[in-house]
Amino acid sequence: MKNNLRGFLLPLTAIVAAAPQTQAANKKASQPQTQKPLNIVYIMTDDHTAQAMSCYDKRYTVTPNLDRIAQNGLRFTNSFVANSLSGPSRACMLTGKHSHKNGFTENTTCVFDASQPTFPRYLQDAGYQTALFGKWHLESLPQGFDKWEIVPGQGDYYNPRFIEMNGDTIVRPGYLTHLITDRSIDWLENERDKQKPFCLLIHHKAIHRNWMADTADLELFEDKTFPIPANFYDDYSGRTAAKEQEMSIASPHDMDIIYDLKMYNPNLDTRLKSTYEDFVGRMDPEQKAKWDAFYNPIIEKFYNDSLQGRELAEWKFQRYMRDYLKVVKSLDDNVGRVLKYLEDNDMLKNTLVVYTSDQGFYMGEHGWFDKRFMYEESFRTPLVMMLPEGFDRRGDVTEMVQNIDYAPTFLEIAGVAKPADIQGESLMPLIRGEHPENWRNTLYYHFYEFPAEHMVKRHYGVRDDRYKLIHFYNDIDQWELYNLENDPTEMHNIFGQPGTEDITRSMMVKLRDAQLQYDDPIRFTYPISDSGELVKK
Q1: What is the pLDDT of residues 404-422, one digit of tens each?
Q2: What's residue 532's pLDDT?
Q3: CB atoms inside a 10 Å sphere around CB 407
Q4: How far is 341 from 322, CA to CA, in rounded Å?
Q5: Virtual CA dihedral for 84, 22, 355, 409, nearest 10 degrees?
Q6: Mean pLDDT, residues 32-50
């Protein structure tokens, strides 16, 4: 079936634009001390938070294959994103630049200019084979890859559509996480030139909303009751922007009882019911029979019980956690399949394996699901790396790193000097076990997508090793300041409180300097002088 891009992708004029002249930037950097060029396997999931990865947090689930990556390499304990939203985060990763520089600030109207320089294109010029399978979500078609197959938009968990390089759209029977892994391993085994180094990007839809598990995993976690976060009933005192969001588990508008929690009722209309019907409608008879056999008894009991208030909110939390973690289980199993293939083919000794997510996610903290905010649960993202021969460091990396750092890291691995316009820093010194004295001590963040789904206000901010300053702007003007040492769950906004003047001044200066350093055109007119003093209005 020939692919009609209308409905999948926005109209494009630059799909077949000539590749930028990247060769001039491909001056050789210092090569890692290995016998031959390293391969790169980069596995990225969607909305997989560190709370649901047992090498970071053992409260909820066990992820043995993901943990194996950390155990045989590095766990980054201060890993963050630049913009906690799927498309923008992916654009930051590909380009090594903040959203305002790569042009993809938000999902609703932006189209990623895939002809711009990206690390896969630079790697191609350096002699690498590059491939991408799975989620792209940038409203354009990939460039800089020798082979790619992507799902349109968010993709479908069951019997998904794939867009191929030749323009065809095909439907592959099965469960998406397995299929992306199948396609990736098939490329490794049968399609690549085994005489050349490669960079393979395995991009999963999992664990994105609405958390539809593989039928083989439906029974998991049904006998487990998860601890409710201490701030599940947050009243958002002193935090107007946090109060006005639409990502509450308790809210019938925000967490849809049919779409999100699968409590299907043909006589009940909800905001996302028809979307759920489309998703379930993709199942074949065998899949649908297993789905119904599992969910129908739960549905019947739910509507008979007629839960209300806190009892309903906590039931929704438990249902959400179970569904989410079932999808994590399938993801972990498939990461294990990739590791086994690399091990069986003697490739781990010469391959850097990276696992991360496009951002973190809320597992009931503040009463929420989803991401977007600069608060810790969504600002952070898991990052673990399995290191090849020649790299002896093991354990934790505590320096603050960001997803704009991945591109320059992969370029240094390939011996390519970092282009001047890349804003991230190579992680190779940290991977080698060094602790550079001039490593960043401040992170910059900027979120743009408002008004939109979940209605999180636009904001930017900075974080250092103790404090975080956030400015919500656009239709609101609110500052938030947190002492992360004393208030790690960010419940107490101390901005403007007596005794915080010096902290505020210091963080204002760091925010000003970060916006100047990264050349962000949306800047606050700071009430501070050039010498760093607060200017009284």
Answers
A1: 999 999 999 999 999 999 9
A2: 61
A3: 27
A4: 29
A5: -100
A6: 86
d(CA 440, CA 460): 18
The phi and psi torsions of 168 (rounded to 5 degrees) equal: -75, 150
* For residue 32, pLDDT beyond 60: no
Residue type, 257: I
- In 20-104, alpha helices (H): 64-71, 86-95, 99-102
% the chain with pLDDT above 90: 90
Residue in the structure block whose two tokens are 């991401």: 371
Token pair, residue 396, equals 């934790």
Nearest-CA neighbor of 333 among 65, 71, 62?
65
| 47, HSE (Cβ side, Cα atoms, 13 Å) | 22
Q: Can you tell me which residue has the tokens 């390519």?
A: 416
Query: If we measure between CA atoms, which residue out of 154, 112, 107, 110 comes closest to residue 135?
Result: 154
Matching residue, tokens 């490593």? 439
Inter-residue contact 123 to 414 (CB < 8 Å): yes
Is residue 24 within 8 A of residue 336, CB to CB? The reply is no
Count of Cβ atoms closer than 10 Å to residue 299 Cβ: 17
DSSP state of 50: G
Q: Which token pair is 401?
A: 């790193």
Average pLDDT over residues 469-487: 97
- Residue pointed to by tokens 């896969």: 120
